[in-house]
Amino acid sequence: MAIFEHLEFFLIIPFIIYLFYLISTRGKTRPEPTNWPLVGMMPAVLQNLHRAHDYITEVLSACGGTFEFKGPWFCNLDMLFTSDPANIHHIFSRNFSNYPKGPDFRKIFEILGDGIFNADFELWEVHRKTTLSLLTHAKFYACLERTVWHKVETGLLPVLDYFSKRGTDFDLQDVFQRFTFDNISKLVLDYDPCSLCVELPYVACEKAFSNVVEPLLYRHIIPESLWKLQTWLKIATEKKLIDAAEAFDEFIYPHVCLKKGDDRKEGDFNLLTAFAKVYEEKNIGSSAGLRDFLRDTSLNLMFAGRDTTSTCLTWLFWLIAVNPLAEIKIRQEIETELHLKEDKKWRCFSVDESRKLKYLHGALCESLRLFPPVALEHKAPVRPDVLPSGHYIKQNGKIIFSFYSVGRMEAVWGKDCLEFRPERWISASGGIKHEPSYKFPAFNVGPRTCLGKDMAFIQMKMVAATIIYHYNIKLVEGHPVSPRDSIILQARDGLRVRLFKRHV
Ligand code: HEM
């Protein structure tokens, strides 16, 4: 009976919101949403749901960088939105201990279990220390180079060659997602699923990553009771999360079981084996507990490594396609810095070579500034606080940070903030210019800064340099390219391109 009462409630509320939506859309031009009785600002959210990130940016720009959103009554959806660097610095760095991820974050991202993204306090410290020691291990970069090289040679180049010879267009975002999935799977699980090959096979786990990012955004927007009801009924976007969790388990568990113990050859480097060793030494849980723990740890690292890197590469290639001068400059830099003018042979690029490519680095930073793959962050204070912007935030009050908006604020990046200018990142002495993370938060800010930043840049430069050196890239005319409304800022309909070989 209680459930049916809830269902009536959930049928009436959308109807009322729809009525307000119709009224609110008549002749309105200002971006700030109207706060209606009963339904709060929800009508404006529904009206702009298809362009959530741009709408948030418009509202934040009009309100000086911070905005109080009022949700429908009794739905616990009031939130403070901010893109103000002073607030970001205050929360992520200066008052870090007052702003853990908190229980709401954990509820929304329950699919990630006890992995690093959901962890706070001691558990987070164990994860952070262990992951950091592994990613800075002497053998790690050699292993990364081997893995990326192998994937470029056996996956990426054959697929690009296939499409360019046939003259057909294809989705470059899909190719990047398969590339990063195979790579991170090899690095974490020591298993290459070979999803990147000319047949472009359907791999359930690979697709599951793309399927979870939209429902995870909706969990931020719709009332918790509603998405919990959907989970219980196994319907709507929640069904996608249930299916994705199954796909993750089926893919990861067999490799977690296989990789226990240190039975590897000298010179091999394997993240999961190293993790298992550390956790066994620290004696965390029973053997079943360890197995689940390793599943969560692997899933978090795969989530960290697959979507972010492939999304950044996708936007880089869109940005250089619409700014052809930048493509020419990247190619010139490759040929000059790596002395390749006379060398027209097929080749891959090494870690050391990729470090020399400063202009390409600037282009990637521009891609991350304008399209940060992690476009939103979410925090709640343990104790009430007053932010540098003057806004009061109560205990457990929700704060949403729009990293997408930070990069598009004139007050932060100047009048040309919407322009793609890799030169912005080159210092007077020709090095890479440093920008504080609260102004450039793509890799997060403060003690929880991304641990894979260096690895991501190396991988992205190796891939981008290989493609730009070997091919001219043309966008398919008329194909729409806009950000997807999801927790990771993928291109909604992919990136359809045609490639033309430069060297025969
Ligand atoms: C362009 C690529 C990347 C971007 C833009 C990026 C961005 C981010 C962001 C915004 C966070 C904070 C997330 C949160 O706390 O909710 C984060 C955390 C993290 N990233 Fe990355 N990331 C990238 C690539 C990678 C790669 C390749 C790895 C390696 C596996 C990685 C590993 C991690 C880890 C372990 C954390 C958790 C840090 C912590 O909570 O202490 N990332 N990253």
From TrEMBL:
It is found in: Membrane. It is a single-pass membrane protein. It comes from the Eukaryota. The chain crosses the membrane at residues 6-23. GO terms for molecular function: heme binding; iron ion binding; monooxygenase activity; oxidoreductase activity, acting on paired donors, with incorporation or reduction of molecular oxygen. GO terms for biological process: lipid metabolic process. Its cofactor is heme. Heme binds at C450. Belongs to the cytochrome P450 family. This is Cytochrome P450 CYP4/CYP19/CYP26 subfamily. It comes from Handroanthus impetiginosus.
